[in-house]
Every structure is written in C-alpha cells, then in structure tokens.
C-alpha cells in the first residue's frame, strides 16, 4: 500500500474532488465501482464527503449548489508548499483565478484556477489533511493527465509553475511530466479535449486514472451502476485501462497498472 502521511513534493497531484447533482446516486455508483466508504463532514463543511479506502481518504465529493453550472468533472489538485505564492505565479502566467486562496478549516490552504487554455486545476497546501492518503492502490488515483489542444503552451505554463521536466513519448503528441527528482507525476496529451459531465462541447481538462484490481470487472460495474463506456479495456505497456463515465457523464479512466519491473 502506498500511504501518504505528509504534504507531497511541489507539483505532485495530491487530491481529487467532485461536485455532483445527486450525491446519493454518486455515492452508490462510486461505492460499487471502487468499494469506497463515505464520511460526511457535516453541515459546517457543507456536507463535504470524504471518499475512503480502508478507512483512509482518497478523494472528496459534494452536492453541487443549485446555482452552479450543470457541468461536472473530477478536480485534480497539485501539492504546493506555499499556496499563495503558487497562485500568484499561476495568475502572472495567465491563469484565471476561480477560487482565491483560502484556508479550509485547519485542514490546509487551497485555490482553484484555470490554466491559460481553460483547464481547471487546484492547489493544495496540506496541513492536518495532506491530501489523498492512499495512491496507486485499487480505489485510489494512479495517474492524471491533461487533455489540451496545444501541448506547447501547457508545458510552458505547468513547467514554470511546478518546475517540471518533460519526457516526450516518441511518435505521439504526449509528454510525461517529471518532478525535479525524476519522479513521474502526470502527462499532457496534445491535440485533445474532453466533453465533461453535462457539457456539450469538448474542452481542455485534467483527467484521472483510478487503479482497479481488474479493468474488465470495473467496466462491468460501471455499466451495471448506471455509467457508460467510451472505450473498452485495452492493454498498453502501462497496464490495462478503459475510458468510462459516471451516471452524470463525468469522464475518468479505470486502470489495472502493469506490474512494477523487478529491480
């Protein structure tokens, strides 16, 4: 089990959350697909739900306010040691501030922005809550990638913001993002956009891959629980994965990662 107990290094995806139009239906769907348990943080936290694996938080979920647009997606947050400085740096580089920097009930400090091409992302400076306590294991996220029409400006923006190094994939408009210590933390898929849940036109967006024990069984559960499948399970050097949607049309991937190479 990959367990996280402190704020992750700068630029590492460290939390996910989603706003949905029907939280009971969302809990039933994701509980069936990933085996999540849920803990309601209560009215003082707007009934924000912690989605848990083996009793540890891996993501968040909330009922969308009635006055919010009817578009839904998984928000990907990135670790920062100084949320204020990172948000200022992002804004100076052309990002739109969606939610200004704010404290979250002693749990951490956050902001939500849109990059210059319009993809939304969050910043999370963990304090009492460092973020997803389990990663890379079944029921938690294993990968995040940006679908964007032009990879060049995206690399420039996120590289300046988080100090990423870039590793292009030969023959593809795909760039792997690496922290300065060489750890792979995500990817950028150029020439690509995504229709979000409830959305009409395709837009730039971060997309999450959730680890599962069996990709084919996860797809069966998605269908049986009211979701849909954009792409059936297929194998790659990285594992077996499928592109799916929840009952509200929110896109995500399920993936059985390939075994780690023996050292």
Word description of this protein:
The protein has four helices and 18 strands. By secondary structure, it is of the alpha+beta class. The strands form three sheets. It has an eight-stranded mixed β-sheet with strand order 3-4-5-2-6-9-8-7, covered by helices on one side. Strands 12-13-14-11-15-18-17-16 form an eight-stranded mixed β-sheet. Helix 1 packs antiparallel against helix 4. The longest helix has 12 residues, at 23-34. The radius of gyration is 17 Å and the shape is globular. Residues 223-244 are annotated as: Disordered.
Question: CATH homologous superfamily of the largest domain - what is it?
Answer: 2,3-Dihydroxybiphenyl 1,2-Dioxygenase, domain 1
Q: Compute the number of strand runs.
A: 18
CATH hierarchy, class of the largest domain = Alpha Beta
Distance between the first and last residues' Cα: 18 Å
Binned, the helix content reads 10-25%
- Please describe the biggest sheet, giving its number of strands, its sense, and whether it closes into a barrel: 8 strands, mixed
CATH level-3 fold name of the largest domain: 2,3-Dihydroxybiphenyl 1,2-Dioxygenase, domain 1
State mean pLDDT (0 to 100 scale). 96
- Binned strand content: 35-45%
SSE ordering: EEHEEEEHEEEEEHEEEEHEEE
Task: Estimate nothing, just give the exact number of structural domains.
Answer: 2
Q: How many helical elements?
A: 4
* Overall SS class: alpha+beta
CATH architecture name of the largest domain: Roll
Q: What is the radius of gyration?
A: 17 Å
Overall outline? globular
Low-confidence stretches: none
Q: Order of strands side by side in the largest beta sheet?
A: 3-4-5-2-6-9-8-7
Organism: Actinomadura chibensis
Protein name: VOC family protein
Pfam family, one: Glyoxalase
Domain VOC: 12-126, 140-257
